[in-house]
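User: Before I run my own analysis I want an independent prediction to cross-check against. Here's the chain; please return only the structure tokens and, at the end, one sentence I can use as a sanity check.
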Amino acid sequence: MNISPVQNKVFGAVVTDVALATLTQDEISRIKAAFLEYAFLAFPGQFLSKEENTAFGERFGELEFGATLFANVEKQEDGSFGEILDVDTQRIRINVGNEAWHTDSTYKPVSSKCGILSAVIAPDEGGETQLADLRAGYTALDQATMDRIEKLSAFHSTQYSQANDVGDFPPEDENTIYHGEAYLRPLVKVHPETGVKNLFVGRHAFGIPGLAREESKRLIRSLVEFVVSEPSRVYTHKWRAGDTLIWDNRAVLLHRAEAYDYTKARVLIGTRVASEPESELAYYPSDPQAQLGRNVLKTELDILREEAKDRRFGATTASAPVWIP
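Assistant: Structure tokens:
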């Protein structure tokens, strides 16, 4: 197995001469060590099946979900891919929203440990996945900013991010990612295994307690923009069929999909590993503090219903709701 750091980047490595479907114990130990050191690993040419993608995720812990289809096409009973979905379906609206920098599962009680994507069909142009190193971003901040944000927190919600970024207001449903909850998380967190500090921001973050609404938005936006302003902190993965990518959500929290022609097929298989509550729990919906998050979210959405009318989906709901992962 060969592990090569990505050139001209402060994070990331490409791993070759290994088969993820048939890992030995020594190989998985080396991969886990590299995962903690480099925060993301790219494995070209793996061509994992759904079962193999899930099994690889289970090497890292309990799953949030395994081998879920992230695609703009419908899968047929025979395993082939058929009709391309309309851009106004809820599934594609989610994809469009994910073109903004975000973090996984911060909108859940326990944010995620790591994400895994495997490419089945990649578009000829666009559709790349970008990752940004929030560890290096935090380290590069000036001391005044570090001191300012050290004790601050922000609420996290996908309902907020979809409304704010693309003017999309999906129906609230406790069984989807649009469940009406908003979870308060620190702007600065400590990685539970490495002890390294990193920023904890992205498109789902809003409503910093103690700050006026516009000041809160400016601060969160400025932190994201600062992180991605330095090319050495940003990696762009150009997908090829068979590639697998894994990243540490507790360190390389920011990522996004690059835009592409939605009339062309893009099919990825995604597995997400859950974190341990001891380090990544905000609170549960049954906890008393959860009500504050609901109240803050409701107030924010009421404002955005007017503000977001000029955004891509015009502050509307999808014309044809479909399955939401």
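Sanity check: The chain has one domain: 8-310.
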